[in-house]
Amino acid sequence: MEEIMIGREMNPKEMIPEEENQEGAKIFGKLAGASLLYALVYTGCLFENVMGLASVLWVASSVWYVRFVFRMFGEKERRDNGIVLGMIVLLGISTVLTGNEWIGWMNDLIIFVLLVGILLHNFAQDTGWNFGKYLAEIVAAVCGAVCFIGKPFADGGAFYRSKKTGESHAGWYVLIGICAAVPCLMVLVLLLMSADMVFADLLVRFAGVFRFPVKLLRILLMLVFGFLSSYCGVRYVQKHAADIKPSAGKTAEPLIAIAFTAPIAVLYLLFSAIQIVYLFIGNMQLPAGVTYAEYARRGFFQLLFVCVLNLAAVLFIQSYFKENRVLKALLLAISGCTLIMTASSACRMLLYIRAYQLTFLRVSVLVALAVIALLMAGVIAKIVKPQFPLFRYGFVLAGAVYLVFAFSHVDYFIAAYNLTHTSWEASGEETVDYSYLYTLSTDAAPAIEKYAGKSGAADYRKQGWYQLYCEANEEALNETGLRTYNVSHAVAKQLLMEDNRE
């Protein structure tokens, strides 16, 4: 394959319009076909199918697409690309194994972020980038891709002119104008419909008279989005990544950070001492009239927010302020106190779970606290030893923890725990939240069936919440075909259909 060496001899910003047109024509000739093929696979796999087996094909096509882009522009792949691409593949596999749609949506979002990140990693000089820099550049790349929405049409026009010299281009210009107008019209129609109820009502009636195929429109929109997002994203990163300047480094005056962190460190040390004396060593002694559930509910989210702020603040100060022994000591004190706050927050959540049982959100929060604690441990290592590879450590750590979470079938453990544990604040009365159990995904089916066998299946399966659980997952249980096949749905279907036959 002929490599397209763009912007190597001349900065793209210094190119004259004719050279830019030639550049766009060359890129369009190779990238447009690949982007269209990727958009077709994306639409065919994910349309009304977030959790099905076809999503693995989309993930495989994503890996192929980014590697095609690297070869096309002559970019040598980095050694650590395998870690990111492997993580993308594992996320796609976990989607097919679980029935939890929240996990499926989070997997897709993380895959998208990783795809943008790996493009930046290979096109830009990212040596020394930290978490904040990467996050800022990923956001900039997404916004830049939106700003590049006209690029496919400009590149396509240049490509057409290069192939059809001396001929009239009127038809091509009209086609470009129509293609560019379609997404603009869609946005404008939505805005005008929301701005005027009369206009919206008339438009809805008009669409009803002609019975416009809404499903076909959604497919076309998804296809357009797949093409534009891939093409425009690659074009933006390819054109601007080389111009991204590396981090300025540690240039800020440390006295500013010392004056800022010193009173905060004193406050945190006092708070941490109270947590150790009264919450940990004092066997969780609480003020009179305050229950454990109330104590956990009031303090948990505040502490979680403070822990996230502390992590971000320490990372920022450690990255941009000059080395100073006093500042190091203060950052270590704040980091240590953050670990104590994280432990306190986890204890409060565990108390809350004992009182009100498990939910998906509560489990997710515990996982987030574990990640914060492990990242803070890495920050401490970075403060003590500046050569510590904090970004690589944090990326691998967060990725590994999330993959374990994604593969764990968390709804199974929620159902198993909630069906066998009742609140210790309920004076011995059963307080299982059945209204939450029937909202769980098909991942919970094996745990529910296991409990049913111990409790007497015949009576158990007549309970209202059990019937509601079956009805809530009816759509997943009735899925047929290879494209929408999901392992969790198939397992639950076998278990629940056997119940119905009994």
From TrEMBL:
One Pfam family in the UniProt entry: DUF4153
Stretches that traverse the bilayer: 82-99, 105-123, 135-154, 174-204, 216-236, 256-280, 300-321, 327-351, 363-384, 390-414
Domain of life (superkingdom): Bacteria
Record's keyword terms, sorted: Membrane, Transmembrane, Transmembrane helix
Name of this chain's protein: DUF4173 domain-containing protein
